Amino acid sequence: MRAVYATDLSSAIDTAIDSRVCLKCLGRYGIKEIDLITVTSPNVTTGMPGSDIGSRTKKGLERQKTQLESEGFTVNTHVVRGTPHRRINGLAEQVHADLIIAGSRGQSPLKQRFIGGTVKNLARTTVSPLLVQRIVRRDGSPAVANKHLFQRMLYATDFSENAERAFEQFKRTRTATHEATLLHVAPPERRAGDEKIEDAEERLESMAESLDEKGIETTTMIREGEAVEEILAAENEIDPTTILLGGRGRSRLRRLLLGSTSEDVTARADSNVLLVPPAR
Q: Among 64, 177, 205, 253, whose CB has the most other CB atoms within 10 angstroms?
């Protein structure tokens, strides 16, 4: 399996790539080959007199490539110009990537353009499952929020076709996932005894049984209210390492491709997010 790993060569991304635990989790997911990509602004000219941007970029990529190779991955590097999320998606389509990985925060001068804006745009447009890895600051230095990427999963479902597609990710994370919580958020007007609530309970239990058979300790949860707020409330209670959810819609309008729930959860969650786009 192959992953596209987006990097802005910042110390934040260095932290994620230097984490042997994180890399082992990717290995257990099935990733063997990584395409490391950095996107430079089309307004930056590496050949300008006195400019060392090209040299610094090359050194940064080689440093990260060496670290990934030391953990057994086959690594290809790419330096491209343009709009980050478009070039990342373009590479993912070109190499038929099984996963796109992007850090959610960073300390580079391109923080808002790459780490903030790029992840937001990838959440709208990703062509492959997108792993958003949370990088936080601890004691003044960047740190990975959750090293064990898939250890405790919070799966949110509305029982749509793409939510079911997202559930299939457990086939890839099963050797790395120890615990899972399956969550359905019902509209507030529904109450216990409602046929739809009972149907949701039965469907969650059936899904839980299939995970229990894989050795994953699984619980189910139904909450009432607004989807984003309830997913984030469940995250606060459960403290998962990763939230798993599917996007919705097939609109050609990129803003609508994955829908507001998945975008908002990706933007606001403290955990990692594994976001699965609709089938193409």
A: 177
